[in-house]
Amino acid sequence: MLVEFSVGNYRSFANRQTLSMAASSAAENKKNVSFPTGNNIVPYLLRSACMFGPNASGKTSFVQAIDFFSKFVVSSSKESQEGEKIPANPFRLSVDFLNKPTEFEIIFIHKERYYQYGFAIDKERVWEEWLFSRKNIKGSRMIELFQRTYLEEENRYKWEINKKEIKGKSEFWKEATRDNALFLSTAVQLKSQTLKVPFTWIQEHLRTIESTERLSPSFSLECIKKGKKKEILNFIQSADICISDIEAEKKKISHDLLPSDMPDELKKEIITNFEDANFYRISTYHKGKDGKKVTFDISEESDGTKVLLSLAGPWLDVLEAGATVIIDELHNSLHPHALKFLVKLFNDPETNKNNAQLIFTSHETSVMTKGFMHRDQIWFLEKNDSEETIMYPLSDFKPREAEAFQKAYLDGRYGAVPRIRSFINGKA
User: Fold this and answer.
1) CA torsion through residues 13, 15, 21, 27, sign
2) In terms of domains, do 207 and 219 share one?
3) From CA 182, how far away is CA 420, in angstroms rounded?
4) Taking a C-beta distance cutoff of 8 angstroms, is the pair 416, 88 a contact?
5) Pairing between β-strand 143-151 and β-strand 156-161 as defined by DSSP bridges
6) Residues 87 and 233 occupy one common structural domain
7) What are phi and psi of 230, to 5 degrees?
8) CB atoms closer than 10 angstroms to residue 256
9) Would you say 327 and 314 are in contact if contact means Cβ atoms under 8 Å apart?
10) Residue 308: which domain range?
11) In whole angstroms, what is the distance from residue 51 CA to residue 17 CA?
12) Residue-wise pLDDT tens for the chain (428 aa)?
């Protein structure tokens, strides 16, 4: 269960910004908004949150920050070599930030424990890394599991490892941790059972989808192959898509499957380079007036139908696993009612029995309508005069519960809207 995520000095984020999923007292008793955690630090967490802002405000950068964080945790110890550059991406519009580390920190609850983990990096090394934990028992205290800090003047790391909590060959794991890798990743790769618990949550329960339009249907199709066709079809049909059946045939690439107007030389090159690759030929079926099934190729379906098919598998899997998913521009190619359908699956405790969480960016303000999203669930992003992304929740404005959030936002009352200027005769 995600509590909060913070990022600083990454892309358009200069100073540290934090998205919190902690529910306020006003949202605690609303079952379609929050759920209990069993932890007295954060008794309730939000089921979903939406981030609004103008184009280029930093919404995509925030999703990319979480994606980078999770991938670096999972792969830093095994997919790079000593001396390789870390793909850090600091805020570039101020020299004050160019030579400072990029920082990420996450707080989450998993297996009856509250975890606080983070690190600071630049292109050369990990400057800091830390992990704290606390049991979900009233009166328990936060304990340090480990911390490492690079001492530049001494050209060495200062280490603190709680050997009472972290059982195993911690000294060996410490020595095996490269400057450009994380201790958490290295220790888990070398069989630390204690650190595997928070690592596994980040690896398996923190998921990102950078764009629905770039999302492949392959996961949904694998679900169909594994016997979940009924669930996938029910999902699509619940969004008012009149597909009665789906079939997916896995095929190897061949000359006759490529476009007829493609040059022969290009076909040969593609077939040579991808001779071992498989792809799906997807057929959808609709009922004709006579009741018989009519076959369509997936390319003949609407963009919205393709997006819903691609989302079906991941959506159902996240709900079943009780995971946290962060998705950019969820509204793309979807009718507002279809967007609400997707969000409602997370907000409704009947369909979200395992406390999965959804965080998404959007320009579709219909989700702000009264009774659908609580003010705790609505966040805004905008850039200040220095082009730094600033994040803040609607709850900062203390709006009345009955206030029309959508109209107030579009009227500019909360900021985070584009400042459109007139454009006449080619001049702004």
Assistant:
1) negative
2) no
3) 44
4) no
5) antiparallel
6) no
7) -60, -45
8) 6
9) no
10) 215-320
11) 13
12) 999 999 999 999 999 999 999 999 988 889 999 999 999 899 999 999 999 999 999 999 999 999 999 999 999 887 667 778 999 999 999 999 998 999 999 999 999 999 999 999 999 999 999 999 999 888 889 999 999 999 999 999 999 999 999 999 999 999 999 999 999 999 999 999 999 999 999 999 999 998 766 678 888 988 988 899 999 999 999 988 888 899 888 766 766 666 677 787 877 777 777 666 667 788 888 988 888 888 888 888 888 888 999 999 999 999 999 999 999 999 888 888 999 999 999 999 999 999 999 999 998 888 888 788 999 999 999 999 999 999 999 988 876 654 677 777 777 778 877 776 656 655 55
Residue 311 tokens, joined: 């989302």
Number of domains in the chain: 2
Strands 102-110 and 48-52: unpaired
The residues, ordered by sequence, that sit 6+ positions from 354 with a Cβ below 8 Å of its Cβ are 319, 320, 321, 322
248: helix, strand or coil: strand
Q: How far apart are CA 304 and CA 307, in angstroms?
A: 5
**Residue at which a domain ends, from 262, 293, 320:** 320
Nearest to residue 180, comparing CAs of 102, 257, 82, 107? Answer: 82
Domain C-terminal end among 320, 353, 383: 320
How far is 150 from 403, CA to CA, in rounded Å? 50
- In the sheet where 102-110 sits, what is the strand order? 17-20, 2-8, 102-110, 113-121, 126-135, 143-151, 156-161
Give the type of residue at 2.
L
**φ and ψ of 50, to 5 deg:** -120, 140
d(CA 173, CA 157): 14
Q: Report the alpha-carbon distance of residue 102 to residue 116 in Å, rounded.
A: 17
